[in-house]
Design a protein that fits this description.
Helix content is 42%, strand content 17%. The protein contains 26 helices and 19 strands. Strands 2, 3, 4, 5 and 10 form a 5-stranded mixed β-sheet that branches. The chain is elongated.
């Protein structure tokens, strides 16, 4: 009996052992045969380290091949949050090695807190070789630190091209989650963040390279195995003239405004400048909190692209367009209107900009001397619909789909149907009166104004483009008679070369005449009481309440080649705009003469753009430091502490 029980127990144990052995054998067979490729790859990944090589970004060049955005070698140091151990000790070591200021340390800590584990956090870039080498020597003691030698984006003209090409920056978490592209995790890799850098990202980025290296179990390099080079991004050639772009930015000086210049033969955009602006090199390198706050608080709004996002009442710059609408409705250009300085229409009083009036005014004189009363009365006669249709035909209220830009604010060309849709109200006569002088509901951006001037000057349905290879066939003629164009163009020529409102806009170029139209756009309402007692001068008003200054033009008058629009925010009137247009077009014909004038201006403004921005930042930094130290006293508190009778 005992022997039988022993035999049964032995069989059970033996069977269990055989079962376990069978399972182990099957598992080993599965791993070694069925999953052979998987484990071989894992083993290989332990032995071989694969890393991506960021591609060099394609250059952006102007129409002549001059670089607008390029790459240059640099040394940088990043932190990889997932690999970081003892962040306080590591950052303290980097502060000592790289001499990092307190604000940069604060920025690094804030970025680390917000960053995803895979997202590199920049410590410093643009390092000297000695600093870069010092970090590499200490690398075994600095887990999570990633020194990198690569290329950084560089914009030779700095702020002058900021709102044209944009800037690059580190990919965000949303960027990575959208594509799951592993190149976005590589320290130092950057993508386009605004304007052309953003919209042309696919062609500018290029293809990453790869490097295979054999490493030990501790990650130490044994030998390089294979390297596949990166493929640089495509070169993007623009229609822009880099010299003109920079000149226009500098010529705007201390004003807040924009300049757009169009080639009337092709529609190519030669210049699209918005100032003041940020330095895209600072954004690409990682802007400091202080610089960001300074830009954000500036009332001249340097972060706004005024050429595409700025919307302004066009003022009297629309009067040549209105004249075309009047001619199309059969108005005789020789018919006169008496301007006494004001007129009564539909029970309301409407004034001309010239208080004493212009006397008897025909169409040519109305355009040349910008008579408001003429356009009030003639506009009411034909109604708003033909005026609005002409405005749209000439480019106002239009979005241009051929431009590779991330945004275009297209403004408003009002008419009775628009007002009914927008407000549920009927169109009134005073709405037409306001629209005839570019006020009321009408809003345009500077690019649209430049296209309006280009279409009037060329007589063709030009559309703007920025990419040099996107010119397309020559634009078709507009549906206006040559005779009507001649009448309007003569009026615009007389604005500058006759007894018009912009005699100082004449070009100092022998044999080249400029035709244009001035515009002053009110940003505040003038009350009847103020008008009776005398309208306050712009100089006596706060900056933000002063009129905008506008000017549209083309040259030469006999065979237009260039058209331009200049808008000066709160410049006090058109007198702030047309001297800029004159000098910008002078640059296209005589660069030396234009530069001589610019140097005189900049001497009075306190230096060029870089000098003024550096001084502005230093002053802002000093104010912030003083405020933090408590040395800036509240004026109200100071006043309250004085004796009310003696003031002491």
């Amino acid at each position: 009996m005992r022997k039988t029980m022993y035999s049964r127990r032995s069989m059970l144990l033996g069977g269990a052992q055989l079962g376990v052995a069978g399972l182990l054998g099957a598992r080993m067979a599965w791993i070694s045969i069925a999953e052979n490729e998987r484990w071989q790859l894992l083993s290989e990944s332990n032995r071989v380290q694969l890393s991506l090589i960021p591609p060099r970004r394609g250059w952006i060049v102007d129409r002549g091949g001059q670089p607008i955005a390029m790459n240059r070698s640099d040394f940088r140091v990043d932190l990889i949050p997932d690999r970081l151990q003892n962040p306080g000790r590591v950052i303290a070591s980097l502060v000592e090695l790289l001499d990092l200021p307190d604000e940069e340390v604060a920025r690094i800590l804030a970025d680390l807190e917000d960053a995803a584990g895979y997202q590199p956090v920049q410590v410093a870039d643009g390092l000297e070789w000695e600093q870069f080498a010092a970090v590499n020597v200490r690398l075994p003691d600095l887990p999570g630190v990633a020194p990198l030698q690569g290329y950084s984006r560089y914009y030779p003209a700095g702020p002058a091209v900021a709102h044209l090409v944009g800037y690059v920056g580190a990919p965000s978490r949303e960027d990575y989650e959208e594509t799951r592209d592993p190149i976005l995790m590589v320290p130092g890799f950057k993508i386009g963040k605004d304007m052309l850098e953003q919209t042309m990202e696919d062609s500018l980025r290029g293809e990453p390279g790869a490097r295979r290296a054999e490493v030990t179990a501790r990650g130490e390099l044994v030998r390089e195995l294979e390297t596949r080079p990166d493929v640089s991004g495509d070169v993007l050639r623009l229609t822009v003239d880099a010299g003109l772009q920079e000149y226009a930015a500098r010529r705007l000086g201390t004003e807040s405004g924009s300049v757009v210049v169009i080639d009337t033969l092709t529609g190519g955009t030669l210049c699209m400048t918005s100032m003041p602006a940020y330095d895209p090199n600072s954004f690409s390198d990682g802007i400091s909190h202080l610089e960001w706050n300074m830009l954000s608080e500036d009332d001249h709004v340097p972060l706004r692209n005024k050429t595409l996002q700025g919307l302004y009442p066009p003022g009297s710059t629309v009067k040549p367009m209105n004249a075309l609408a009047l001619l199309g409705q059969g108005i005789d250009p020789e018919e006169t209107v008496t301007c006494s300085g004001r007129t009564r229409i539909a029970g309301g009083n409407f004034h001309c900009w010239r208080r004493g009036g212009h006397g008897a005014v025909n169409m040519n004189r109305a355009v040349a001397q910008s008579c408001d009363i003429y356009f009030y009365q003639m506009g009411v006669r034909i109604g708003m619909d033909p005026i609005a249709q002409t405005a749209r035909t000439l480019g106002l209220g239009q979005r241009f789909p051929g431009l590779p830009v991330p945004y275009q604010y297209f403004g408003t060309v009002p008419d009775p149907a628009w007002k009914q849709r927008r407000f549920g109200e009927a169109w009134q006569t005073y709405d037409t009166v306001n629209a005839t002088i570019g006020q009321g509901y009408m809003l345009t951006n500077p690019l649209q104004l430049a296209i309006m001037a280009a279409r009037i000057g060329s007589g063709r349905n030009l559309t703007p483009h920025l990419i040099a290879d996107n010119a397309g066939p020559r634009a078709a003629p507009l549906n206006f008679s040559a005779e009507h164009f001649d009448i309007v163009r003569q009026g615009m020529s007389d604005v500058v070369n006759g007894a018009g409102t912009a005699g100082r806009a004449r070009l100092p170029i022998e044999g080249v005449q400029l035709a244009g139209k001035t515009g002053t756009a009110q940003v505040r309402r003038i009350t009847m009481a103020e008008r009776a007692g005398g309208v306050r001068s712009n100089a006596s008003l706060p900056w933000e309440l002063r009129d905008h200054g506008l000017f549209v033009c083309y040259a030469p008058t006999d065979n237009p080649r260039y058209a331009a629009a200049v808008v000066i925010e709160h410049g006090g009137g058109s007198g702030s705009a047309y001297p800029v247009a004159r000098d910008v077009l002078t640059y296209l014909y005589d660069q030396d003469r234009a530069m001589e004038a610019l140097e005189r201006y900049e001497a009075g403004w306190g230096g060029d753009i870089a000098t003024r921005m550096a001084r502005q930042e230093a002053e802002y930094r000093a104010r912030q430091a003083a405020a933090e130290a408590g040395t800036l006293r509240d004026p109200l508190a100071d006043r309250a502490s004085r004796d009310p009778e003696t003031g002491e």
